[in-house]
Amino acid sequence: LAKGLGVTQLVVALNKMDVLEWQESKYQAMVQPLSNFLFQSAGFAKNKVSFIPISGLHGINVHDKLHSEPCPQLSSWYHGPT
Questions:
Q1: What percent of the chain has pLDDT over 70?
Q2: pTM of the model
């Protein structure tokens, strides 16, 4: 639907990562099927989609660039955009 409306860039916020204890394996388990769909079926370009692990409840990685202090588990493996 988004692609049909002319959307060319996506930010996919993977919320509730705090509940999953910021495990990279859980993040990858969500990113992989979403990537397959968005890139192959929906036709989005890989450089136009960002997957961002967040905790909306705690505001981690939502507004400000991630630092190791509020969430060392996430900052040890995630170095992408906020």
A1: 98
A2: 0.86
